[in-house]
Amino acid sequence: MAPKIQWPLVLFSMLAGCGGCCFAFAGVAGALGESTTVTLWATGISLVLVVVGAVCSMMHLATPRHAFAAVTHLLSFSGISVELIMLGVVSALMAAYGAACLWFDNELVRLVLGMAGALAGVVLAFVTGHGYLISSKPTWNTKKLPLAYTGTALVAGGFLYAAVSVATGGVWAMELPVKLLLAACAVFSAVTVAAYLGHLGMQTAKKNPTLFWVGIVVCGLVVPLACAAILLAPLPSMAFVAVAAVGFAAAMAGGLSLRMLMWIVGAGFLFFFEDAQANRSAILNC
């Protein structure tokens, strides 16, 4: 069977995960004292990414009616129901945090919402990969997969926050604590991606050499690590934004490449998704 990449799910996990993790960085920076103007910008962009990701997920279900039918099964706590729950939780926290920045001059409220949002944003990135743990699919059935999803989303969200923060006049992204956090996320991403590739084995991981070497190794590992290291040095604001933007673009490309590889190596199981797509009405209404 020829590999068939499920693009709506690839985009959903990357966009929603990146948005959730960018919001996590905004929450941490807000706790450190970043201005509400900067964190509000980052929160707004994060919310857009999460919403667009949710729309991509809905596209996989073909029609809004099927998506709403899935909502009725939330308490099943299946993979899709947990994703929907976390999408709702993260979106609500983003909206509440934005409202607190705009209309409530209460640092404690912003701190609580920001920290809750930081945790929820990272959990969202994790659950977008956790739903693929299926015992009958060895290439997917490992906790290393959702951890790699989380790592790639964290580094992309971190670079996005760094670029947006400094571009909108923020200062905390250029301070050592946030720089070290971003560098730690880059290392975490590299370790988790390497762990998942190790689970697959090099022969399987290199089924598509261009995707592996250019997409995952160069864009997903080398460039983000290099950019995170460069950002540790003192840089002018414009140079900082430029390096962060390059890191963000590379991290997004690397994260998407990892998700594409997951579908390629899972080709033997794709008949299930084709059958589910053909019978989605019966499945969702059972």
UniProtKB/TrEMBL annotation:
Transmembrane segments: 7-32, 38-62, 74-99, 111-135, 147-174, 180-198, 210-233, 239-272
InterPro entries associated with the record: DmsC (IPR007059)
Short name of one Pfam family: DmsC
Keyword presence, Transmembrane helix: yes
An annotated GO cellular component: plasma membrane
Keywords in alphabetical order: Membrane, Transmembrane, Transmembrane helix
A biological process from GO: anaerobic electron transport chain
Molecular function GO labels: dimethyl sulfoxide reductase activity
Stated name of the protein: DMSO reductase
